Amino acid sequence: MAKVAVLTTGGTVAMRHDPARGGAVPALSTADLTAVLPPGAPELAVEEVCNLPSSHFTLGDLWHIRERAAAWAADPEVSGIVITHGTDTMEETVYLLDLTVPGETPLVLTGAMRTASEVGADGPANLWAAVRVAASPRSRGLGAMVVLNDEIHAARFVTKTDTLSTATFQSPGWGPLGRVEGDQVHIPWRLPRELIPCSRPEERVVLIKLAVGMGAELLEDALARGARGVVLEALGASRVPPWWLPVIERAIAAGVAVVIASRCPSGRVWDAYGYVGSHRTLREMGCLFSPGLNGPKARIRLMVVLGAAQDTAEVAALWNKNPDPGEHECP
Ligand code: ASP
Which backbone phi and psi does 251 adopt, to 5 degrees? Predict the structure, then answer.
């Protein structure tokens, strides 16, 4: 019989309306959350890691969640781990866990879009689905996943797409890994997982989104404040205005890793143009490119790579290691 560890960290799933505050606040304990599971659920081990909105998490909090998840993943009696978490930053935590928690034990993040005091609260159904996915032998070796709205999404692709919808989590361009249907867990696809051994991620990594005509002051400011890595959510498939180039050049010369992601909600960065500020210019300058990760996830991967590498050559080598062994260049 499968044993599942349930770690709770807060989020809307653990919130109730508080008339005095005029809004939802953290209220449910780990015991309150798991009390809704039906008879016949797998044996549970529970731990309250914290009870916070995910917008309050520091990078230290994220690493603490990672440490607790890694400790439970090392327990041979535990076949799967569920982590309840606020949806606002769930995509970052799930990807950090996917990159850094070793072993075959599946890590399933879930939460809710409606509080426990709302009609149609989705927390109990999401938690039950997450427990079933964590207990499924089919989930072993898949790394970290998000389960909400009966869909199973891979850490690498999942993103919060809607501020209110209970179907907010999507994997744009890829689709879910699988689904929960009644008491069945269907996972038709298997995505190879990338593990980057890292004792502590580098926290001094910023994410900057570009917009038309925008100056490079935010990047200059990040460099002045000692950033060790910068992710730029560039225009289209990876273009920046020409006036950004001298600042990017200065960053790279100072040993700062500059990663180019896209501000588009789906699709990869791509080399198609010969004009200044295009992908080609950025590559020749020594920028690194996001392997299909959105800006927040590229930032997590860069923090982990910078935490794992000793020097800039190793940063580039680790960054450019293909995260997807299923992907090959066309001849
Ligand atoms: N405010 C919540 C959070 O902690 C949102 C949610 O959980 O849906 O991220």
Answer: -65, -45
Instruction: Please identify every residue annotated as catalytic.
Output: 12
Longest C-alpha distance within the chain, in Å? 65
In order of start, what are the domains of the chain with their CATH numbers?
A: 3-186 (3.40.50.1170), 205-320 (3.40.50.40)
pLDDT band at residue 238 using 50, 70 and 90 as cut-offs:
very high
Residues with CB under 6 A from ligand 1: 11-12, 53-55, 86-88, 111, 113
Q: Tell me the per-residue pLDDT of 90-122, one tens digit each, with 9 for 90 and over.
A: 999 999 999 999 999 999 999 999 999 999 999
Q: How far apart are the CA of 49 and the centre of ligand 1, in A?
A: 16
SS (H, E, C) 250-316: HHHHCCCEEEEEECCCCCCCCCCCCCCCCHHHHHHHCCEECCCCCHHHHHHHHHHHHHHCCCHHHHH
Residue 87 Cα to ligand 1 midpoint, Å, equals 5
Ligand 1 centre and the CA of 164: distance in Å? 10
Q: 182-218 pLDDT, tens per residue?
A: 889 999 999 999 999 999 999 999 999 999 999 999 9
Q: Using the atom order of ligand 1, give the atom closest to the CA of residue 11.
A: 4
